[in-house]
């Protein structure tokens, strides 16, 4: 693999990759092939991105603590909606919705739950998942803000799919 920046040969290694491309701070992918160049350029080869993002979305809507702005953005993008449309679905004005997304304003618990339900509905999740969501999600709404590290093994999302570039 040749580096785009400096035309040197890049080195390939298996790594636990901090998946910042997701837009989230706490996602780590295990056993990912990463190409690195001595100039600092790198790129990860992440297989099965669609399945991976669906998996991350489901983890987010099942968490017991409040959604943060980055998670709202992730959920919205994962169902292919722009901010204006999502704000309309929630029934909130666009500027408030933007403040939720950029973390300037906290959202109330019912809005948090509504965002998860809109995601689950647009995503067509099974009834069981939605019931679980209604019972368990947002239980610990005032829980710690700090997000736990989430490690995802490559095998859990990449079965029989060719590698794609992020
Ligand atoms: Zn380079």
Mind sketching the topology for me?
Layout: E1 11-18, E2 27-36, E3 42-47, H1 49-62, H2 69-78, H3 83-90, H4 94-101, H5 109-123, H6 127-136, E4 150-153, E5 163-165
Parallel strand pairs: 2-4
Antiparallel strand pairs: 1-2, 2-3, 3-5
Bound molecules: zinc ion.
Provide a compact summary of the structure.
With 166 residues, this protein is of the alpha+beta class.
How would you describe the overall organization of this protein?
This protein is an alpha+beta fold and 166 residues long. It has a domain at 50-150: 434 Repressor (Amino-terminal Domain) (Orthogonal Bundle), CATH 1.10.260. It has 6 helices and 5 strands. It has helices at residues 49-62, 69-78, 83-90, 94-101, 109-123, 127-136; strands at residues 11-18, 27-36, 42-47, 150-153, 163-165. Strands 1, 2, 3, 4 and 5 form a 5-stranded mixed beta sheet that branches. Strand 2 and strand 3 (42-47) form a beta hairpin. Helix 1 (49-62) runs antiparallel to helix 5 (109-123), helix 3 (83-90) packs across helix 4 (94-101) and helix 5 packs antiparallel against helix 6. The radius of gyration is 18 Å and the shape is elongated. The protein starts with 10 loop residues before the first strand and ends with a strand. Zinc ion binds next to loops. The site of zinc ion has 7 residues, from loops.
